[in-house]
Each structure stands twice: as C-alpha cells, then as structure tokens.
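In keeping with the milestone schedule agreed at the kick-off meeting, the structural modelling team has produced records for the first pair of proteins. Each record is given below as a sequence line and a structure-token line. The laboratory manager (R.T.) confirmed that both were archived under the project's standard naming scheme.
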Amino acid sequence: MAEHWELIKEAPIKNNCPECYNQDLIMQFKQKHLRTRMYHRTSAELREELHCNTCGSRIYPVSWTPDIENSVNYYRKMATPGKSGIRFSWLFYVLFLLAIALVGAAVYTYLEGMWGI
C-alpha cells in the first residue's frame, strides 16, 4: 500500500519567518491518497505545511506567530479538498468476476450431482 500526499493548494504568506525574519513563506495543503493494486482511495484527510523559501526550514505550528496563524486560518478556509472516495482497479474486477465464475461452477456441479454425494 502506497501512501501519497497530493498538493491541493499552495499560497504565499507575507509574514515574517520566525527563523530568519524574511517574508518568503509558502503554505501548502496536501490531501492523502492510498494506492494499492486493487483500489485507489482518496481520503478527506488534509495536511498543512509551512516552509520558508529563504532559509529552507519547515515552520511547525509551535513557532507560529499570531499573524501567521491568522493567515493560515484564512488559507485553510480556501483550501477545498477533492471528493473522498474509492476507485477499483481492473485487477479487482477480474478477480471478482473469477470468484463469481468459480462459485457458479461449484453450484452447477453440485446441482448436477457430479460430486457423488
């Protein structure tokens, strides 16, 4: 099972970085996707990340100033995640049809008396 975070929205924030005090912050909102051989599931779970482009550091919510928090709350309202759901792959449908065919064949041979019971 492969977990993948897809970028939904990216927004520049014009507040000062708590590390280097430059105004080159970027806010990213990502949505969780799970991929397996049988299905692709889109989750409603969101992750938000704040990065400084100047010093290259990730700013964690513990060190956010009230101004940064207000900006993040504004962009959080604007970030709309994609519709959550599940899509099955062709392998799922092939295995499902094969299972139905095997059950049908077993019922047919049982009803025809080929098992000798």
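The second protein of the pair:
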Amino acid sequence: MDFSYPISYDWSTDEIVDVIALYEAVELTYSKGVERDQLLSLYRRFKEIVPGKAEERNLANEYEELSGFSVYRTIKKAKDMNPGEQVKMSK
C-alpha cells in the first residue's frame, strides 16, 4: 500500500508492529481471506494497546479513509462466524 498506517507515537515498537499486523490482516481479508481465530487474536492484542472506544474508532476511521478497508465491519463479521472459518470480505 502507498499510505501510512495510523499509529500513535506513544506506542512502543512492539505495539506498533502488533497494530500494523491487525491492519495487514484486515487487508488480507479483502484479497485472500484470514482464519477467524487468528484475526480475533490480533484484534484482542490491538484492544490491549488501544483500550478506549473513542481512540479505536478514530484509528479505524482513519485507516478506512486511507485504505478503503473497514476494521469495524471485518471484526464484526469475524465475531459472527464459527471458529476455524475463513473471514473473506468484499468491497
């Protein structure tokens, strides 16, 4: 992608890597698909780093504006699926 991922400069390097891993997994759901449990595990780590709803919403909205991929819709779909299924999104 030719855009910058939305991050906070208050985060550690490991936290930045983990948040970007979620963004990349969301992107993969739009092309190849990602295993539901892996995606939700990445999201749980994201929520450890970004526990507040407002900050989560701001980051997700900024990411969607930049990329066209929705963290919210992807995670919502994953939560509604059965363990072991592939999450596949379409634009």
